[in-house]
Amino acid sequence: MTRTAATPQTRPTATETVLEGRGLSMAFGPVEVLHAVDCDVRAGEVHAVLGENGAGKSTLLKLKAGYHTPTAGEILLDGQPVRFRDSTEAESAGIVMIHQELSLVPDLTVEENVFLGHERHRFGIVDRRSQRRATRELLQTLRTSVDVTRRVRDLSVSQAQMVEIAKAVSRDVRVLCMDEPTDVLTGRETEVLFELVRRLTHDGVAVLYVSHKLEEIKTIADRVTILRDGYKVGTFDVDELTPTDMARRMVGRDLADMYPEKRPVAEHAESVLELEDVTVPGHAEGVSFALRRGEVLGLAGLVGAGRTELFEGVIGLRPATGRVRKDGAQVRWRHPEDAKHDGVAYLTEDRKGKGLLLRNNLRENLTLQALERFARPFTDIGKEREALEQAAKEFDVRVARLDVAAGALSGGNQQKLVLAKLMLTTPDVVILDEPTRGIDVGTKRQIYFYVADLIDKGTSVVLISSELPELIGLAHRIVVMQDGRVKGIVEGQDMNEETIMAYATGLRDQPTPGPEQSEVVHGAR
Amino acid sequence: MARAEATVAPPWRRRLARVPWQSLTPLLGLALLLVLGSMMHPAFLTPTNLLNVLTRSAFIGIIAVGGTFVIIAGGIDLSVGSMAAFLAGAMILAMNALAGNDLAPFTIVLLGVGMVLVAGLLAGAANGLAITRGRIEAFIVTLGTLGIFRSLVTYLADGGTISLDFAIRGVYRPVYFGSLLGIPYPVWVFAIVAVIGAIVLHRTRFGRYVRAIGSNQEVARYAAVRVERIRTLTFVIQGVCVAIAVILYVPRLGSASGSTGILWELEAIAAVIIGGTALKGGSGHIWGTVVGAVMLSFIGNVLNLTTAISEYLNGAVQGLIIIGAVFLQRGRSGR
Q1: Is the pLDDT of residue A185 over 80?
Q2: For residues A42 and A36, what is the distance between their CA atoms, to the nearest angstrom?
Q3: Per-residue b/e over B85-104, b at no fewer than 16 CB within 10 Å?
Q4: Which residues span the domain enclosing B160?
């Protein structure tokens, strides 16, 4: 890494270091998660931080934005050592962070959120009109059409993310720290965001950008710092590296094929889970398709297509009508427990809000869904511990100690834990909803190979995903939904991004029944 | 990458680190109170006085054991004081009515005990179902039933006092005043209820589900836990605990009135919170609740024995301790 000598106290020009970290280390309790990392960011550049889950990316960012105080090392702003007591101090110095977890107040309006803590006053009264106008202008520059008087609670996740960004840039920002900002954005929104980032850097703002999406880094970043297991691998000019180079340095080994080989579905494989005319009021209408034994059935669609809600309805988390057959027998699941008894498990897309008890330990999280196996009638903690050790091994949950709270795990390790928890119920049909959201390449690959293992063991999988390469790489067939309806089922040669997107955006419709009777497609009007 | 076995600290340090220092605060508080009490009055540490205090703490303590389940599951029950008064009044009236027939007083007491347990269970179930099936905040439902039970007992007593038949009273009295192996029955019952409560909370699926629901109801629901059923059951447990407390309370005075059990709900909730259970749910211990209940009782006793502070200020001192306890909790959760 190029270590800039302490800069003289002049206003930084476009190539001068604004914020520099030297030998930054961070420990949570006895566990050091970041080891003497140097990282500087210059005015007018996008400096990406890349690494697997648990590599210390978010921690590094939080140190620089004043959310944590480093246990060793120092932070220099314009060459002067600084010590922020909290994020507010960092913010007043122009270092603003956009969170992975949104930090907006759900019950306040867009405008109130943007000006929260920085309200404009007129005669001692909040000048809402001026705030509203300013917010509207701000959102316009972001090309986001969000009504500023709406409550954040009523916004979609991606809209909320844009508001979050608007809030950050409304402050006088010199260093903008972004933690995986595009995770919840659509392709178009991502482009708008990138445009905004370019405009900001043009104005001399320094951007620290954490991501695990290699292509994205290639597009937006000037330099990239790669972290592995809390150590710095190096800082590179992005032009020097191909995405493959980056991935290799990040994982520390060559990424062999990302996806496992597809096991063909037996020719006359019976249907294990059939949906017929299933309607989830407000979200999905007249959905029919069937999952065959040993199949990975992909479910594609844009955000809001109703895929999550459809399956929440199927397993009894929401009211739903229609017919569902498991192994040929009609079933009616009024509660997830009913589905569990019939061997069906659903992995939620919201692992922090619905998947894990973040304050509880790993053991209690692991066994929650299959606790009856560990309680006869008294809970056998020893047996639970064994199960945890085994699960940690089988799913490669990487953690220094197994007695920490689930919230202390990195995203990928959390996902592995939720997966392990699900599999303890020994389901033969698994519904995976965005199983790789917010996790790094290495862990993604592990999950892909785990899915292949499941298929080998005779389990059938429904894979709901917004990442098309993942669907194409894993699924035997892909059901495409738009607006709560099935628009098409693609397989073979048709499984390409263009065809899927055509269905997902409603450009194409497939009103004719599929090749088999069980794949009758309803929904097209 | 490091795994579980890779811990490097020496064993004694690990053991020290594992002691849950902060959840021991209630116990330390109790110890401090005992030391203070013994310095202020020589009679304080005598066995008679200590047993007396423990006996009195039994009512609140038993109710608070039930309250621990409700609060850990993320609920609250404000109706327990009124419910106790109502159950006491109903129990006395039922036993008086039975006294007219020629049943043995002992049989009547047994019938009364059985009846009040069922009534407590039903009252708790009513609270629980209104909250889970009716989807109404626990605070609102139990605020409503607080008023309902209180006015029912006043109505049953016709504004006065309901007194237990004297023949029955003679048989029933020992349940509060008698003792086994030198320890009064109420203390035994308190201990048994606490032990069962602790086992249920910490060693059963139900207890684990209660904590999971209090931690995050959605996570529990997605993990196929019958959230509504479990939450209703916590209120049923609370109702049964109130009934048990009433069974011990009735023989003490042999009467019930509109002012029976006033502010018991506050003392019970206070005992739970002082004991280290988070008001927002998710975590807590029965033993902490027991310590909390005993502490509250000791504070009253110390004020009674000494002249330093008027006993009329009992409520104020308890209030300060509650606020102090929650202040310490806050320090624990804000990291």
Answers
A1: no
A2: 20
A3: bbbbbbbbbbbbebbeeeee
A4: 58-265+277-286
User: What's the predicted TM-score (pTM) here?
Assistant: 0.73
HEC-encoded secondary structure of A302-322: CCCCCHHHHHHHHCCCCCCEE
Q: How far is B134 from chain A (nearest CA, A)?
A: 17
Q: pLDDT band at residue B19, thresholds of 50, 70 and 90?
A: low
Angstroms from B159 CA to nearest CA on chain A:
47
ipTM: 0.79
Cα–Cα distance list, A282 to A98, A321, A464, A503 (Å): 32, 12, 19, 20
Tokens of A268: 């006359």
Residues A434-437: contacts with CB within 8 Å, 24+ apart?
A434/A349, A434/A464, A434/A465, A434/A466, A435/A347, A435/A463, A435/A465, A436/A465, A436/A467, A436/A470, A437/A183, A437/A349, A437/A466
pLDDT tier for residue B5 given thresholds of 50, 70 and 90: very low
Distances (CA, A) of B87 to A88, A245, B75, B115, B250: 55, 75, 22, 9, 10
Residues in B touching A377 (Cβ below 8 Å): 204-205
Q: Which of A336, A375, A398 sits opposite B205 (nearest CB)?
A: A375
**Position B82 pLDDT exceeds 90:** yes
Q: Domain residues of chain A, as ranges? A: 16-94+175-252, 104-171, 259-343+428-525, 350-426
d(CA B244, CA B116): 8
Report the pLDDT value the prediction gives residue B7, as an integer from 0 to 100: 44
For domain A16-94+175-252, give the CATH superfamily: P-loop containing nucleotide triphosphate hydrolases (3.40.50.300)
β-bridge partners, A298 = A463, A478
Partner-chain contact A377 B7, CB within 8 Å? no
Other Cβ atoms within 10 Å of A69 Cβ, number: 12
Q: Tell me what the pLDDT averaged over chain B comes to.
A: 85
